Amino acid sequence: QVELVESGGGSVQAGGSLRLSCAASGRTFSMYTMGWFRQAPGKEREYVARFWWSSGSTDHADSVKGRFTISRANAKNTVYLQMTGLKPEDTAVYYCEYREYGGGVYWGQGTQVTVSA
Known about the structure:
The protein is an all-beta fold. The chain has strands spanning 2-7, 10-13, 18-26, 32-39, 46-52, 58-60, 68-72, 78-83, 92-100, 105-107, 111-116. It starts with a strand and ends with a strand.
């Protein structure tokens, strides 16, 4: 029902910046949130940030607070994750999440972010 497509991943040196984008297509609803998670090799998937479309509220994990910013794009149902001050420990596959309030959860395919020292 909902397809999520991430883009913007790549390789960058420590201290660099990247901007990830996630576009949701298909049937979307009024009450939903979109967010970002990441998963490094050998680790569990980790929450990064979330954006509530109904209220415009945002939330960021402590590990990325002050460096990453989730925001809406001009395009409908699209969110960004602006990443600055990247560290090697940020290396992971970043996944976009679409969550319907009281409903389903959808995931994108993920986009690789690699930060070299």
